Amino acid sequence: MGAGQPGNRERPITMTDRTMTEQKTTEQKTSDPTRFLSHLELDQPDKTFLDSNELVINMGPQHPATHGVLRVILKLDGEKVLGTECVIGYLHRGVEKIAENRTYTMFNPYVDRMDYVAAVSNGLGYCEAVEKLLNIEAPPRAKYIRVILTELNRMASHQLWLGTHALDIGAMTPLFYTFRDREEILKIFEKYCGARLTTHAFRIGGCQYETYEGFERDVIKFLNFVPPKIDEYEELLTSNRIWLERTKNVGVISRADAIALGVTGPVLRASGVKWDLRKAQPYAAYSDFDFEIPIGTNGDTYDRYTVRMEEMRQSLRIIRQAVERIPEGPIMAKVPKVIKPPVGEIYHSIEAPKGELGYFIVSDGSTQPYRVRVRPPSFVNLQALDIMVRGALVADVIAVIGTLDIVLGEVDR
Amino acid sequence: MLDYITSYLSSDTTPGQAGNVFWAFVYIMVVFGGISVAVMAMNWLERKALAHFQIRLGPMRVGPHGLLQPIADAIKLMTKEDIIPAEADKFVFWIAPLIILCASFAVYIVVPFGPTHAITDLNIGILFMLGVSSLSVLGVVMAGWASNSHYPLIGALRSSAQMVSYEVAMGMAVVSAVLMTSLHGLGPYGVGVGTSGTGTLSMIGIVQAQQEQHVWFLFKFFPLGFIAFGIFAIAMVAETNRAPFDLPEAESELTAGFHTEYSGLRWSLFMLGEYAAMIAVSSIAVTLWLGGWYRPFPNTLTGETWDLVFSLFPGLSFLALAAIAFVGVRRMPKHPYFRVQTIGLAGFGAVLGLIGLILFAPPMRDRVQDIFWFVAKVAGFMYLYIWYRATFPRYRFDQLMKVGWKVLLPIGIGVLILTAVLGVVL
Amino acid sequence: MVAKLKGQYGSGVREACTYLGQNYMVVEPSVVSELLQILRNREQFDYCVDITAVHYPERETQFELVWILYSFPRNERIRVKTMIADGESIPSAVSIWATANWLEREVYDMFGIRFDGHPDLKRILLPDGWKGHPLRKDYGIIQQDQEWVQANLGIESGQ
Asked: ipTM for the complex?
């Protein structure tokens, strides 16, 4: 049982040449917390608004461009941003508290509602975490089905991201194209488990539903239908001079800052760190597949765009390999009717489309978890907003919020 | 009295020059009505074309294929509550959209639809056009100021800065075109002998200079004319605050632009002014570079037959539109719910076909030629505007200003100098 | 590595074991800050994955704070846990990893554990004037701060 166990890979995922020496010199910079918060001017409590010619503007919770109810308070000097402060919590539903009052199986549907754009990934993370706690493993066929659905989900999430990000920057058309193609994925989900968005696709121990008649055919049809569409999106945007000007060198986050701030996912990969949980600590049959991890060099918005586009293509590659090789067999492991994991705790994380989605589950031996902590990637990525828009213009703030790919359901839980 | 009216009919100048107030008034009414209809048609076309670019259908319910949608929008906007912010400066608030509207419409006084089909032909026509269209900046600033709220004010300042910067580039391009009018000779590089031309600022004069030089200024001193046209084309998009230069009125940015506080009819006046300005600057572009009202190839493809062929185009185009309408009628669903729409569309197609057939009649053919070609060229520009909006992301404000001052202006000055040099040398 | 740390801190490191393949250490609150520093600087745990807490009301040291760390070069995860009592505060990890900023704010918001040295410790998910710390076990599942709800939302109750 090698999958998912940390620390037993012989080949560590290496960072590139900049290792210890760079870390030491940047340590001075990154270990100073005030660098990230200097705009709050906490050391000058008597300074009032009248002392400066700065403007404090509120991008309120209702805003067409903030992807949900996110409130960003901007401190501007003319048009330049001096600092930001995010006010979140408008979508806080107390999911972690709810978990303490539901059984493990009952909590499964709640998990989809956090990152509602990529619901299948959330379900995968939770089910795998509980399976680890129970020390059981899903059968191979279930793992392959999980991989296929999760990668389809990743495509859908990235397509939604592309449409909304392009819309924020001003290009109206890619939105409609990506949503049209996303429909195909949602149709597959609907045929599989009955729901398009909050799918509740997996169960603890495997999958509940067998793949429907024609599932492989639909998936292969989708795989043939989509690559020209991705080329279409790229044709509209990648070499468009206005797009390049809007996204190059906008929202740059350096590699050291990215690691210090704990950002994960495409944001981290665009800053040059070649790290993907699917390769570093494989889970759910990812070790059987051959795919690459795209990285960027500059850590700017354009790199995040190219990284995500390439991830879409790699997802297609994974799905194709998985569909061709689905093993026969049971789809559900032998799970007791009443799930009562032994006392203990576990942390399991997966590579969700937004970053590292982790579940820390503490069990006290009863049917209800004692504590479920969800480590949301969007929450931690949103912290990086401040450092990314220092010195940029107001229009860039919106572009950067889009490129971080946050979903408020996940930020607030 | 009757003599006064009929005496104009035998003259060969514009009513303004002939001093005939009655006909000038008639022409003004016709142009005003035509532009209003054109604005409504433009509104419809924008929604439909944009929708088709985005693989959706656009308005389909109000009238067949949404043809009555602009009317429905107009009725809706007129019946909306007129909200004036409490602290707003009422007079300025009221007059700002009117200034923009008047500035945009005043341009049409000199727009030539034909050799005598203009309201008047000022001998400083192009200067007048540039000057009057700049007045809309004043309206924008007044709108932002009067709203008494800092978001519209920021939007108005941005918008006015953008418009003013791109006017400079526009001016450079226009001057190069005007320089070309003072050349004599035939063909793209002015070689050969022809009637000597005198430089002129009048719109009709510029078009006639193109005719005398047997070349559209677009192709004159190739590629200089082309570059000058390009500069003007980009600058005119920025002048009218259209994509990709529409940051001041974008919804997903922080400020919703100078017309945030306006509602109902006042807001529709802004939109009217914007579309009218679009058509106006497109007309300038067509007049200066694209040969105005002349049909394509008036000198290379000459002769009776070619004249005949080209004179059939207006009728043919209307017949083509009628054919499209009938195709639409065939594709309408057969459900009784759609009966009224089907009949409406068929009627519309029939009217278009009728107009097309009328335009085949020889007396109509000659009269309509000029106006048709002019309008066709301007319509091409309108379609380009919509195409830009569908395709391009938005420029950030500082990039926008950078393009205006650091890219377009130097190229414009360069083109101007080269045009002058070539004009003297050749 | 654990042996070295144990040797250094002796009593500080209470236990270190592996459960289901995941390593974790329980340490005393007094050494936790130094230990985290060492883990970052020397042992290359440069990525702070999560900071969270669990509430055990029946124990004396009620709160168990958990730091989950990951090392890129070593591709290893480790959990550092410590137990503190109600009302005690713990040094903040913001100076070690900048991620800790919002993560600690959330722990404060949900549990009421204060972090010394945190630059901006205030509520993050709940409104600023909220009273109570919801993820504690003595906070009811449908309990809300009625005072805040009535004052700010103008309704009788949030239920």
From this structure: 0.89
